[in-house]
Amino acid sequence: MEKEGKGKNRKTRLILEIIGGFLILSLLLSSSGSVSESEYSELENKYNNIVEELDTTAKDLESASTKLDDATADLSELQADYDACKEENEALQTEIETLKSEEEARIQAEKEDEAQKEAAVAAKSSTSQQNSDSSGGGSVWKSATGSKYHDKPNCGNMNPDNATQITLEQAKSLGLEACKKCY
Fold first, then answer.
1. 27-31, 45-49, 143-147, 177-181: lowest mean pLDDT where?
2. Is the dihedral of CA 124, 128, 129, 131 positive or negative?
3. For 129, what's the count of Cα atoms within 13 Å in the CB-facing half-sphere?
4. Looking at residue 72, what is its pLDDT?
5. What are 30-37's contacts with CB under 8 Å, separation 24+?
6. How do strand 148-150 and strand 139-142 relate by DSSP bridges?
């Protein structure tokens, strides 16, 4: 592109110089055979001014062309950076969505696990309670001073050395209540 611009500038300059020379010649010939030195000098000055303006315009055009080429290169670099950032952003968005899905699945699994544990505890408690109720005479443990009966002698709420084994019926007749930790 730059070479084409320089080639056009050279052609334009050549054409203008030819036209300028032609004008000077035609003025010389069209006059009644004589051109005064002042007229010749004036025409030559006009011609030189036109050539100077042409040179200045050509330099300005070349400078603008260089600036345009630099701006185009900068734009290409910026576009490449933008495209890279866009791809990275899309990859991060995908990773975020994956992490969200994994977290939701983990939370759901924890909830299901907790529900299963609660169901197992409830089933154990229900079975234990049914066994105690259905036997009517199952054994329980009574502390020396407490108001509760226990399923095991080493419940954290009583001293096992002072525990006495009695029937569930006896514990209820004494007004003892079931230990919340054991039952």
1. 27-31
2. positive
3. 10
4. 96
5. none
6. antiparallel
Is 11:67 a contact under the CB 8 Å cutoff?
no
122's tokens: 């409830």
Q: What are 134's two structure tokens? A: 């259905």
Interhelix angle 37-135/2-30, nearest 10 degrees: 160
Lowest mean pLDDT among 64-68, 85-89, 134-138: 134-138
Q: For residues 5 and 149, what is the distance between their CA atoms, to the nearest angstrom?
A: 106
SS3 state at 145 = coil
User: 156, 181 in Cβ contact below 8 A?
Assistant: yes
Residue whose C-alpha is closest to residue 157's, from 148, 165, 166: 148
Task: For the chain, give the percent of residues with pLDDT over 90.
Answer: 31
Give the span between the Cα atoms of 2 and 18, in whole angstroms: 24
What pTM value is reported for the model?
A: 0.40
Q: How many residues does the chain have?
A: 183
* Model pLDDT, residue 34: 63
What are φ and ψ of residue 181, in 5° steps? -75, -40
23 membership: H or E segment, kind and range: helix 2-30
